[in-house]
């Protein structure tokens, strides 16, 4: 999840409640002597309903296709990219793996470890989903992934804590956000939760400041023609440095994880220990899993990242992602059948309910019930464009350098110019 409004997965997917094996060509299908096939799957939900979704989906697929068993490996989100890179280097790939799109997926394609899906996607699914949904997973004109969720970002917040602090409207500008931060502090509330330990949540702040400061072409061409010579990149870093200087983040944010436990940044919001968190659409489900009763946070709200005075970015532009799944080069042919299965309406409705997020399949949008997702979906539809998370667009090496550079700056070990220089240097090495 992409370099354009074409990133939107606002296209429908045909309903495929149960897909029988169609004998797809491609892949090295190596059944056992009794004709049975096992598919290994790596996914990033390790607890709760998200983890259960894959158990249920695998069971349902097995019932429709008794000769195929899906073995699931649950990997902590922050560990997924590293484990996948190790698998790429060693050649010991899972049959099905979570794909984030952009340059991260393009690097796996370049390594020859993933196969295209173009002629393996069920025609009804492909027609209903449309080109837009597959944009994030298209490399050199070929499709390498099946979308599962649309994940634009913005600020999730506690309506109760805003009310406690006397905040009567959602911040639309940085001046208004700064005023809200001051009111929350006065009310004894930590304004913004930030999982700096995992780096990428801290870098989200730079991504969004860049989206507000930089023109569309600079932001949307990062995956194909990154250009960090424009002064807007430095201005975005200065914006973040200045904002962080007002002390808006939770105490100990540099050692706070993003999604693991009650003391993570999502956990702080879930337990009303912090008022806001800048995050993608998956945050609703993560927060729900960390509330005392493990149910959705009733007072959870959402608003877009605020406007920045004088920025060249288009008003309403968003940054986000699109999760999906890919087949490794040597996966059994049943891999594509499973991807078609989980891309269908019934399974996408289950995905939306259990992950409490936005499915890639528009036919499944009726399953989205959390009220905090309604304004996010509306903003997404109205956005002039939605760009891919910067680290995904830039790929593993450059993205990691960017994320780490942001944390170093926030920790006082660097400044805005050093951050931009770090990104430039990493990008020049490729």
What does this structure look like?
The protein is of the alpha/beta class. The chain has two domains: 5-150 and 321-368, D-Maltodextrin-Binding Protein, domain 2 (3-Layer(aba) Sandwich); 152-318 and 388-429, 3-Layer(aba) Sandwich (D-Maltodextrin-Binding Protein, domain 2). The chain is 43% helix and 15% strand. The chain is built from 18 helices and twelve strands. The protein has helices spanning 48-64, 77-90, 102-110, 123-134, 159-164, 174-186, 200-213, 216-220, 222-225, 232-244, 265-270, 283-289, 334-342, 345-355, 373-382, 390-394, 396-410, 416-429, and strands spanning 37-43, 68-74, 96-99, 138-139, 142-143, 146-158, 190-192, 274-280, 300-303, 318-327, 358-359, 386-388. Strands 1, 2, 3, 6, 7, 8, 9, 10, 11 and 12 form a ten-stranded mixed sheet that branches. It has a two-stranded antiparallel ribbon with strand order 4-5. Helix 1 links the parallel strand 1 and strand 2. Helix 7 (200-213) packs across helix 10 and helix 17 (396-410) packs antiparallel against helix 18 (416-429). The longest helix has 17 residues, at 48-64. The protein is globular, with a radius of gyration of 21 Å. The chain starts with 36 loop residues before the first strand and ends with a helix. Residues 1-29 have low confidence and may be disordered.
């Amino acid at each position: 999840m992409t370099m354009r409004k074409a990133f939107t997965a606002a296209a429908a997917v045909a309903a495929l409640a149960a897909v029988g094996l169609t004998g797809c060509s491609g892949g090295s299908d190596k059944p056992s002597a009794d004709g049975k096939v096992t598919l290994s799957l790596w996914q990033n939900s390790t607890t709760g309903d998200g983890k259960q979704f894959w158990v249920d989906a695998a069971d349902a697929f097995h019932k429709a296709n008794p000769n195929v068993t899906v073995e699931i490996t649950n990997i902590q989100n922050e560990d997924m990219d590293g484990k996948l890179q190790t698998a790429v280097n060693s050649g010991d790939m899972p049959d099905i793996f979570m794909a984030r799109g952009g340059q991260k997926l393009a690097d796996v394609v370049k390594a020859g470890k993933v196969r295209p899906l173009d002629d393996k996607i069920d025609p009804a699914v492909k027609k209903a989903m449309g080109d837009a949904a597959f944009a994030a997973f298209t490399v050199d004109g070929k499709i390498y992934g099946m979308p599962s969720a649309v994940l634009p970002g913005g600020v999730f917040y506690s309506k109760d804590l805003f009310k406690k602090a006397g905040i009567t409207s959602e911040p639309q500008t940085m001046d208004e956000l700064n005023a809200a931060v001051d009111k929350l502090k006065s009310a004894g509330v930590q304004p913004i939760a930030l999982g700096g330990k995992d780096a990428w949540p801290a870098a989200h702040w730079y991504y969004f400041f860049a989206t507000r400061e930089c023109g569309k072409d600079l932001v949307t061409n990062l995956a194909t023609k990154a250009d960090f010579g424009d002064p807007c990149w430095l201005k975005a870093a200065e914006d973040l440095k200045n904002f962080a200087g007002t002390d808006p983040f939770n105490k100990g944010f540099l050692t706070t994880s993003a999604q693991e436990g009650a003391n993570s940044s999502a956990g702080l919001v879930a337990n009303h220990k912090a008022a806001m968190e800048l995050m993608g659409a998956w945050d609703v489900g993560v927060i729900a899993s960390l509330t005392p009763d493990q149910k959705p946070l009733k007072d959870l709200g959402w608003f877009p990242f605020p406007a920045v005075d004088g920025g060249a970015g288009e008003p309403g532009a968003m940054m986000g992602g699109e999760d999906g799944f890919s087949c490794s080069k040597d996966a059994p042919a049943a891999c594509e059948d499973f991807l078609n299965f989980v891309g269908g309406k019934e399974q996408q409705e289950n995905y939306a309910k259990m992950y409490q997020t936005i499915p890639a399949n528009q036919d499944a949008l009726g399953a989205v019930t959390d009220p905090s997702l309604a304004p996010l979906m509306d903003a997404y539809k109205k956005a002039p464009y939605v760009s891919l998370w910067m680290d995904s667009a830039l790929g593993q090496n450059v993205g990691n350098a960017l994320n780490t550079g942001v944390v170093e700056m926030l920790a006082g070990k660097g400044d805005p110019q050093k951050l931009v220089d770090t990104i430039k240097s990493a990008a020049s090495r490729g």
